[in-house]
Amino acid sequence: MTIRTEVLQLKDEMIGIRRDLHAHPELGFEEYRTAQVIENQLRSLGLEPRRMAGTGVVADLVGGAADSGPVLLLRADIDALPIQEANDVPYRSQNDGVMHACGHDAHTAMLLSAAQVLVAMKDDIPGRIRFLFQPNEEVAGAEQMVAEGALENPPVDAALGLHIWTPLPSGTIGATVGGVMSAMDVFHIVIKGKGGHTGYPDSAIDPVIAVADLIQTAQRLQTRDISLLKPTALVFSKIEAGTKNNIIPDEVVVEGTLRYLFDPKLDGDEDPPKRLEEIVAGVCAVHRCTYDYTVEQENEVVVNAPEMVKLVRETAAEILGDEKQIVEHRSMAGEDFAAYARRVPAAFVFLGTGNPEIGTDNPHHNPHFNVDEDTMPTGVELLVRTALRFFEKKTSGKGGL
Ligand SMILES: [Zn+2]
Ligand SMILES: [Zn+2]
What we know:
alpha/beta; Aminopeptidase; Alpha-Beta Plaits; 2 domains; 8-stranded mixed β-sheet; 11 helices; elongated; binds zinc ion
């Protein structure tokens, strides 16, 4: 029986699991029911799941070559979002205000199916596969999994992750070398002036006009300071100041996000958060203001390793039978898969699921978001066959692995 036939035999069961998870979404680090469903399923396959980071689940498939072979990590994320679902489907969310609006329900179901197929081939796998079901992707839960040893005992050699993606059409796979999902820094800036009467602005130090200038001047960062070939997006999304229309306030608080598709640590002369602070300092000097600047990195850039992307592309070409359906795709959204990709060679791949005919082309994190479930078997086949190809290349010393 071919792998495709095996995967297709699991399709109904997989969709059933996905719909069950969809109906019972849970927010990050609260995925208690979800973790239970995953554990039960893994145990039924003869694996021994263990908990990590509270609601994370990890299980190792030890193949024929036992502990001596390479270790591949396959990762799915399991959390939902604080969104009220607007879809009218039989499996709509039963938890008010919580929804699987990013496809993590599908990721979980696909990885469980991949585990089922791979367990049946256990004796032919010359190494170990770690199935990792990660909580709280939407707020960087991966770091906690890594801190609790997800990449150790034995050490993981490579990692593969997959995201259902509505911006890409159903039937396509996006696999790209280099930065594929953006770093995201959240900044908080307090511009401090001196409050006063709007009839005597010269005797005050007006922080509002300084902020107006900052928002304009800081835009240069994206095109004049950082190379155009290194996508950078600066957005001011929150401004707070003032109590009354005839009072100049003492200070203004501005917040926003700074996203970029490269790693400043490898590119020291172009460091977006550092450059933003320089601009804040310059603008404040002009306006006689002072400032506090804090920036917190929520996600690092996800950087795909060439040898891992090659593996995925070769596999995808076999599965899709048409190389034109394998596309280059990058996103300015963040993804905590960076926590793995920074430490081991990794590929993070997009599985196109956008299909306007059935309404699955809404953006991620939208209350109308949904998945083209017919694309899920392709995702499973990609996980299974890329894993097999990994062991084949790794043990033969080919493909740069
Ligand atoms: Zn998301
Ligand atoms: Zn997501």
